[in-house]
Structure formats: structure tokens, C-alpha cells
Amino acid sequence: MVPLIYYDSKTGNVERFVHKIKALTGWEVLRITENIEIKKAGHLVTYTTRIGEVPDSTQAFLQRYADYVTTVSSSGNRNWGKNFAKAAETIAVNYHLPILLQFELSGTQPDVQKLIHLINKEI
Amino acid sequence: MTAFKAVNWNTPENDYSALFWEQNLRQFWVDTEYIPSKDIDSWKGLSPEIQQAYKRALGGLTLLDTLQSHTGMPKILDHIDSLQNKAVLSFMCMMEAIHAKSYSTIFTTVTTTQEINELFDWVHANKYLQFKAATIDRYYRALDKKQVNDEELFLALGASVLLESFLFYSGFFMPLWLCGQGEMVASADIIKKIIADESIHGVFVGLLAQDVYKTLPHPQRAKDKLTALLQELYENELKYTEEVYTDIGLTAEVKEYVRYNANKALMNLGFEELFEVKEVNPIVLNGLNLETTQHDFFSKKSTNYEKSMEVAHLKDEDFIFDLDKDLLV
Ligand SMILES: Cc1cc2nc3c(=O)[nH]c(=O)nc-3n(C[C@H](O)[C@H](O)[C@H](O)COP(=O)(O)O)c2cc1C
Asked: I want to staple B287 with a disulfide (CB 3.0 to 4.6 A). Which of A79, B117, B180, B325 is the partner?
């Protein structure tokens, strides 16, 4: 099965990150919107906002579709110290999901490679 | 005659102004809520070389925050159309003034007037710091007119992101590195508040830059100019780093941190990273991660504004003080 990524993005970083993955792998990436309808399992990539919080749009998505989410990753910025990419940790605890990657902003090339590798391992 | 417009927050002008306004409020702080005097013993235990590097790092940061609050933010604000975005920029401008002042709060606490005056003389005479300020200022001053073209605006916004997300970090390295080893931790609380603010500023101004970039007739030309500016500033950062950090043997670590943050500045502008970075100094990361409780008062206050406003019914009697008791304090 070809991996699928659901992603949330406010200021464009996660969007750029998952498109780098798509360009290298051809995997499908789907942006979370209010009315998104999904039927397949996929990996969640989101970001951290408001000092260590999960974005509302990601919360709403998880309330409907947590059963379809197999792993979680989050973007963030190490300048936030202990709150760095904390959204992934909160989601992992609340929904009992494994964390694949916590990365900064739109991710470096090594970050992109790392997530591809980790998702491949999950298959 | 064109009608003067009043800012209407009832209708969002875009999907991010309100988020950044709220985030700025959430992060709001003032220097006097912190207690750098807890660092006096730590300061006395530092070698003269480390003290010197610390003062110079913070002196350089003072210059950048001064430039940002007195020129950068006001000039940019003048050429941004959205009134809500202007409001966010004006809040950020005020915070830059608080940042610039807060370094003095630390200096005043740990060192003497004579040393502080010598430090500011050093800042004013240091050719690398002056080059940084003059180079960025040139892009701001290009906005010193009524009509500017989109490329000029993009480059000024880009220069601002380079200042916020890249040029600060040769200075931030020093207080974070000390904090990561348990030194100067109370002052580092102030520094970390500044870093959180600058991170938000970098994202916000970066978004404004990306919006303008999309409308440019020659985007590649503008991107090349910005990349050339980054390179020029990078060369200068390397020399500045050598001047400040050679005596204490940290030059290589600081240079790596500078490259790492240059990459992050580029990401804030929607571009790819330029430098290969192997490792960010773990002591610095530890400094960022260290949770302290020096500013509990502030963090409580900032989340409890509404509540505290509800309970604050002041009466005349509240202003009659018990003199004996006051004298004891
Ligand atoms: C308002 C705001 C608050 C943020 N708070 C945090 C935070 O608490 N922790 C963190 O690691 N990153 C934080 N960040 C950084 C973002 O998570 C990071 O920039 C991320 O790449 C944004 O993803 P996006 O561009 O796809 O929206 C914050 C950014 C903004 C704009």
C-alpha cells in the first residue's frame, strides 16, 4: 500500500515539508480542511501553536478521524524550548499514537529523508 | 481627498493577523518583571574573558533591537496595506523597544556604569556591528518615500527577517550557552522571552515577505539579491564571531549556530536551507530547554488578565497605607 499523509499547515512550513516528501516518493499528501472526508489510514503531520498547543483544526480532524491515523509528527521551533513540537507529544498521549518525527519549520533535507525512512519502516 | 480608514477587527483582513495579535498578547512581558539580581553571584564567578564576551554579545543585541524598533518596524509598517497587519507590526515594534531596554536592565544589575559606558563605546566603534546595522538600515531606508516598488518592499521585509531570525544568534549563543550550564539563568529568562518574540516576528514578517514575493514580476532576481545579502552578512557574522568568541574558544560552535539560524531565516521566507549543519550545540539547546521559575509572577499574570480585572475593585480605603508596615518592607 502506498503511504498517505494527512497534514495541517497555517503558515506554509508543513505544506512545504510534505511536498518535498511527495516530490521524492510520489506519496499522496492531503491537507486537512474543515470538510475533509477520508476513508483510508494515513500518517498525520501537523505543527505546534500558541505555546505548546495542538492546532484547533488538527484537534477537530482527530475527533472525527483518529481511528484512521497511524502515526503523528509535528513541526515546531527549538526556540520554544520544552514546548518544541509539543503537539506531537500531546496527540501521542491522547490518542495512543507513536511519534515519528519532531522537526523544525519546513524541515531540512535530512529531516525529509528521516521521515521517508521511518514511514517506510512502518509498512 | 482620500478617506482615512479606521481599523475594523470585526472582519478579518486575512487568516493570520488575529492569530499573531493574540500570540503577541500571550507572550507579552516587561523587563522589570524579571529578577536578574539573582545572577550577581553567578556573574562574579565568571572569568573576565567570559564576562567580556557576554557583555559584548548583549551589547550587539541591543544595537539590533534598537535598529528594529526605531527604524525597521516603523518603515515597514508604513508600506503594508492591511490595517490589522499594521497593528501587529506596531505591537512588535513596541516589544523591540522593550527588548532593547531589557539588556540594560541586565547590565545595570551586574556591572558598573563605567563598564557599561565602555561597552556602548565598543558597540559604536565595532566595525562588524556597524556593518550589520548599516547594511540592514540601507534596505529600510529604501522605504523612506511615499511610493516604493514591490521588490524594494520585499527586500526590506527580507532584510528584517534576516535580522530577526539570523543576525541575532551570534549574540544569543552566549547567554544560552551559560544558561545551559546553570550560569546567569535569571537573565536568560529575559533572553528566552526575547527569543520567543523574535521567532514570532520572523514568521510574521516572513509571511508578509512571501505575500509580496508572489506578486513580483522578477521573483528570481529578488531572490538572488536576498541570497547575496545573506552571504554578505554571513561573511560579516563570521568575523564578528571571531572577534567576540576567540578568547573563550567558542568560535566554531557559534559559527555552526549562525549557519543553523541562517537556514531557519530562509525557511521563514519560504525558501530552502543553504548550509549543511551537523549539530547544534547541545549546551545551547539545554539552555533553551531549561525551565526556570524566576518569572512565575509574569506567567500567571499573562494568562489571568480577565480574571484579575474582574476582582480588582479598588476603593478609596485601599490607598490609605499603614505607614509603619510599609517602612518595614
Ligand atoms: C503563533 C505561533 C505559535 C507557535 N508556538 C510554537 C510552540 O509552542 N512550539 C513550537 O515548537 N513551535 C511553535 N511555533 C512554530 C511553528 O510550530 C512552526 O513555525 C511550524 O513550522 C508552523 O507550521 P506551518 O507553517 O505549517 O503552519 C509557533 C508559531 C506561531 C506562528
From this structure: B180
